[in-house]
Structure formats: C-alpha cells, structure tokens
Amino acid sequence: MKDARPSVLLIVCGGIAAFKALELVRRLTERGVRVRTILTRAGARFVTPLSLQALTGERVSEELFSLTDEHEMGHIALSRGSDLIVVCPATADMLARMAAGLADDLAGAVLLATDTPVMAVPAMNVRMWLHPATRANVATLAARGVTFVGPEDGVMACHETGPGRMSEPAMIADAIMDALRPVQPPVHFPVPRPALRPLHGLRALVTAGPTHEPIDPVRYLANRSSGRQGYAIADALAQAGAAVTLISGPTILPPPPGVTLHRVETAVQMLAACDAAMPCDIAVCTAAVADWRIATPVTSKIKKTPGAPPPSLALVPNPDILAHMSRPGPARPRLVVGFAAETDDVRDNAVAKRKRKGCDWIIANDVRAQTGIMGGNENEVTLITATGSEHWPRMSKDAVACGLVRRITAAFDIAPDSPGTDTPDLPPDGVPA
Residue 71: its pLDDT value, please? Predict the structure, then answer.
C-alpha cells in the first residue's frame, strides 16, 4: 500500500548547524511527514547515520556508488520519490555545487536528477554568506526555482555576528509545511493574459523587500521580509501591460521579466529612488521599510569589551514613503496601494493606517510567526478601501498579485479619465468586471 503521508528528502551537509537537523526531523515526523535522509561525508562528521535512522525510522543513504542501491538506480529513485527536497544545512560549498550542477556524490546526483521542488536552508560564516561568489550562487539557484529559508542574523559558532546563522528548526518546519500544503488555484483571480494587456500605457511603481539600516560596517537593523509579494505584484502588473519600475531592498530574488529594477539598501535610498521614478499612475508600496534608523552609524565595527555595558544606539525616524507617495497634488499617482503587516487587531490597525497615511487602498495581513507568511510563499490578506473591505483566503503570493491586478484593472476601467487627485475604487459589488 502506498504511503499517503507527505514526504521530504532531507540532505544533511557538513557544518556545525547540522545538529539542528535532528530537531527538524523530530518536528516534521510529529506533524505526520515521512522523512528520508541523505547524509554527506562532511555531514557525517557532525551527526551519525544511527541518530537519523532512529528519528526517521528510515534507512539513511550515504554513498552514490552503492552496489545495493544503484542496482535499482537508487539516486534516481530518491530524486523522484519525495514531495520536497530540503538541503539543511546548506553550506557555502553545497550552494556552490548546486549552482554548478556537480554530481560526484549522492547528494549532488539527486539534486541534479530531480524534478521535485528544492528548499535550501543556508548556514555559514557571515563573510562566506556575504561573499560575491555565494551571493551569485544564491541568485542563480533562486532563478532556477530553489526556495530559501534564512539565514538569520545572530552570533555564530565562530563567535562572529551577522547574517549566516541557520534558522531555528521550528521556523524551518513551518516553511516546509507551507511548501507541502497544496495551493488551490483561485477561481476569481486568473493570471492576466499578456495578449489582453489591459494596463498598457500606464506606469506603475512597486516597492518591495526590507531595508537595511546600518549600525556599523557589519551590523544593521532589518526585518524578515523576503520581497516575494512585491516581486509577484511587479510581475503581474508587467504581464498586464504596465510599464513597471520595481524599487527593491536587499533580497535574493531575480528581477521579473520586463520590469525595470532599482536595488537600494536603506529607507532614505528607497525614497530617493521612488521620487526619481515619478510620475506614475499606480504605486504599490509593499516594502517593509524600517521605521527607524541609527542616528549616526559608525565607520568601524563596534567592539564588545568585557565587563562594559552594551552600546547605546540612538534611533531617528525613517522617512514615511507611503505617506509621501499619498500626498495630494498633481504629482500624486492616481492609485496608491499600501500594505499593513500586523500581529494584533489586524483589520482595525490597517483601517487606521490607511486613513493616517492617506493611501487609497491598503492590504492587511497577519504576520505572526505561526502564520509563516512573512518570508513564506503564501499570503492571506484583506483588501481595505474607503468604502469597505474584502477578505481573500490563504493562497500563493502569485495568486494574491494576480487578484490585486484584476482589482486595479477594474478600478481603472471604472474611472479611466480620472484626474490625478481623484482615485479609482472597487466596483460596488467588489467583483472585477
């Protein structure tokens, strides 16, 4: 009888964070997931095959040239027999091998032979993560459809601090469960067909991703935004015919085709890029802009002195980009859409934010950790306008983007000749034409 459980193939690579893979296995099996494992030679220096076998109840695969396994082309069977392949920890070496398509061990052969979705969980020294070679490899893999969980900022085993620390097993398990959850295609939100191009002749501006506000040359203030929702909206707008400018904070995402991309780091840079991209007809502000920045970033790394108290960091407010774009006047976009990422009283806070900022629509979502939305592949939103609200059930971020473009198209069909200070709104029944 075929096992009906969702199935994950976990590739455990060599790194000090490999011990967390055991906790990840436990969390997944508790949720009813079948976990099979590949243990690389380097990974076996940190965890044992016996530990993985005891937790999974499955035999651990290690060698490509196994007479027993390869009699039945074992690496092919492994590559096709799971719903998701997870590389955890994904070391700098493994990311480089994946990007280059190397297949001289079992893990590499499986990854090259698979047509199954692949998720990577990076873990490495901060300098290795920030090295241009690693950044290029991550961008290459993301363009091929590999999804990433983490890394996080924090203190690492090497006693350095910064991005590179592997995400915690609970967060990884949530991301895996999201990836395993079947996504129902939204009936009312088909992808805009390029042949129709209903927004042809309109200019759209989209902001996406986090901002990084420097503390010193090594550290910065940021948040968990991945930029996926903003990139999906930019892509959908471009498919619908709009001329799209995407202002992106730091992400690992490849630019959508046909979109003009400007990368920035800080909120001040993002505001300047938005002003430079004006005028436009549509502005969609999805970026999770840091509310504050360090008043005076230092030019040398802040050192930790034994016995000394932590440094005092003076913060100042960042520019409010959504409010800036929503100001009345001839340069105002005809439609300004904001986002409200909330953890409490989601709808009420979003309604208040729309009024406070002066935008036309606002899209609210619940970003508490247990939802898996921030940094994940799915979203559950409420679209709020001056006349009401509309809840959209959980769906992929691509589907949310297509739904928003349908709403934008319907709004401009209603008021195509509106002057710059007038803004379109949803049809009375909330359903696009």
Answer: 47
Which pTM value belongs to this model?
A: 0.55
Tell me which residue of 89, 220, 216, 93 sits closest to 157, measured CA to CA. 89
E runs forming strands in 241-326: 243-248, 260-263, 282-285, 292-294, 315-317
* Phi, psi of 400, deg, nearest 5: -60, -45
Domain ranges of the chain: 7-180, 203-414
CATH superfamily of 203-414: CoaB-like (3.40.50.10300)
Query: What pLDDT digit, counting tens, does each position of 168-187 carry?
Result: 888 888 888 877 876 444 43
Q: Tokens 């780091």 identify what position?
A: 265
HSE of 314, CA atoms in CB hemisphere, 13 A: 4
Is 158 annotated as catalytic? Answer: yes
Contact 251, 226 (CB under 8 A): yes
Residue 202 in this model has a pLDDT that exceeds 50: yes
Q: Which is the catalytic residue, given 13, 88, 158, 280?
A: 158
Pair 13, 91: CB distance under 8 Å: yes
H or E element in which residue 154 lies: strand 152-155
pLDDT value, residue 75: 55
Q: How many helices (H) and strands (E) does the chain have?
A: 14, 20
DSSP 369: G
The domain defined by 7-180 carries CATH number 3.40.50.1950: yes
Judged against a pLDDT cut of 70, whether residue 133 lies above it is answered with yes
**What pLDDT does residue 2 have?**
58
Q: Quick check: do 7-180 and 203-414 share a fold?
A: yes
Confidence label for 428 from pLDDT (cuts 50, 70 and 90): very low
